[in-house]
Amino acid sequence: MNPESEGTTKISLKKDEILFLAEENEKDLFVIEQGEVMVFVQKGSQIIPVAYLGAGEYIGELTFFDEGKRSASIICTKDTDFIKISVDELHTHCPAWMKTIGMQLTRKIREGDELIRSKGIRKKNVEGIKPLSMEEQSHCFKLVDHKKRNMSS
């Protein structure tokens, strides 16, 4: 993908910078050019890693299509370069049928996520993502608090 393409912007963040937080209203799609991020949710006083994503992977595709709020937070675990694709590009360049399919897929994924969140899921003989240590959780909380303070000022 060419970072100079119309409707895209190149963004570079340093390790420990937050791309966005859960519940934010920002709607754009991000492609990781290089680097790595941790996708996480906050449940009470716990930071729960959901995934680690790297080069070539997308972030924010659900919100891009359904314009809902962000369902997870993203923090850079390494210096990371992104290509930001404006949600306006979806409205400008995608045919209506493609937007409809995107919205329907997004709805199904969000419903599945909510079912897992409310009922839980039991995995047998599957190794999940390693939980964060107390120090790592404390560090993430500090970064999230700093981001929230900056957003409100």
UniProtKB/TrEMBL annotation:
Alphabetized CDD domains for the sequence: CAP_ED (cd00038)
Cyclic nucleotide-binding domain mapped to chain residues: 1-86
Cited SUPFAM superfamilies: cAMP-binding domain-like
Protein name: Cyclic nucleotide-binding domain-containing protein
InterPro entries on file: cNMP-bd_dom (IPR000595), cNMP-bd_dom_sf (IPR018490), RmlC-like_jellyroll (IPR014710), SRP54_GTPase_dom (IPR000897)
Keyword terms, alphabetized: GTP-binding, Nucleotide-binding
Pfam families linked: cNMP_binding (PF00027)
Coiled coil: none
